[in-house]
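Cytochrome P450, Cryoendolithus antarcticus. Tokens?
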Amino acid sequence: MLAQIIEKPNFRDAFLVAILLTTLVYAVGRRVFAQTSLPPGVARFDRTDAGWISFASLRSITDFKISMKQGHEKYSKLDKPFICPHFLDGPLVILPPSALSDVLRQPEQTLSAQKVQDAMTETEYTTGDLRFEHAGIHQGLVRQRLTAPGVVSLVPAMADEIRLALAEDWGEDSSSWHDVNLLESVMRVVARTTNRMIAGEALCRDAHFLDICRRYTEILLGIAALIKLFPLWTRHLVAPLLTYPIRRLVRGAYKSTKPVILARLALNEQTKSDDIPNDYLQWLIDEAKRRNDPWELRPETMSRRIVLLNFVAIHSSTMTATNALLDLLSDRTSKAELDSLQQECAREYANAGECWTGDAVQRLVKLDSAVKESLRLRPLSMRGVERL
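Tokens:
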């Protein structure tokens, strides 16, 4: 666009570029020069000697991880809080580990986890309808059904999908080697397994739908970060333009989910409850009927909830699984340790009748410990537990 404006000046395009550049300058300046109300008596880590003009927030773009580690050594280990700069979110108050139990005891009205999620994804602009986040229907289902023991009944189907996905992606020929992009491969496997749990085989093997879910996961946080750069009063103006790729993906997903959802709704009207599948889509339908909420029963609403659940599940599960595999296969893990994990898996698989069940997975104590250690070494977020 800039080259076109230089070659053929156009007032409209030039005005648009001027607005974008002005906004960018404002965003950077606001983070460098603006003073923020901060708790008194808390050390502000990584602040320059230039008084209220601090470039620490700019350095946080590349040095945030380093700043957090140094702040941990200097303050957290002495049981003291500190303030760490962050370019997008502003100064963050980092509490020592001893305060964690007090933070978790606070009610949502005092310290909110939902507000953290909304701020991270800029929910108001990226979803276009706060009911998707604040209606409460999916939070309850995730807590009650998608955590142990609620998810135990889904383990056989998920294990079957993992086996099929790995066979397609990694192959079953153990006599020769071939290259695999681990992150992309794990993301494909996670996407298939997630959607087997969400709506069964109909969606989990729809390559077009899985590609949409992966792309949605990859772009949403980036678009949310762009929105954060704009002043609050301009976000309603620029968000429709910035979130166009999200809306396009949501429409594309609906083309795949609509026939599946309509078929399931019809099945609920014709079939006895014993014959209806047990998955997330069915739980959504049951909960919407229980609440007598026509908006929740709309295929468009359920489709969007399916896409949102994909975002949460694919991102976190992919990073966790990829890091765990890299840790287990690194030179830090001995052959004896790997053999011990393989023996545990083989033993529990045989004891379960060569079919993975929820009980068998829960008996994988060593593997569970290995994944937890990987998460400890490489957490999904440097910030830990967050509240607003």
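Residues 1-7, 47-53 have pLDDT under 50 and may be disordered.
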